[in-house]
Amino acid sequence: METLYQILAIAAAGLIMWFLYRQIKASPQMFSKENLSKSFTTLGILGVILIVFVTMLVWLAKGVLVCCVTESWIQSPRHLGTVVGDKKR
Prior knowledge:
Layout: H1 2-26, H2 33-62, H3 64-74
């Protein structure tokens, strides 16, 4: 059964290679300098955004970002003198 999967994988890889070859032959302008430059710029920007997003998720998971937000909320002038759970009568 394993041999069958290997043969199917080789056939699928060959089919994909043939499809890509046909696509590139039909439109060689896909690999022009301008198009590649635009693509790499877009991928770079998306990569930086992804890095920032994952960093913020890690900070949230560690509690660093929540701690910073909580401390700034507690130290703001509006909340000075009030204690959580303290009821004023």
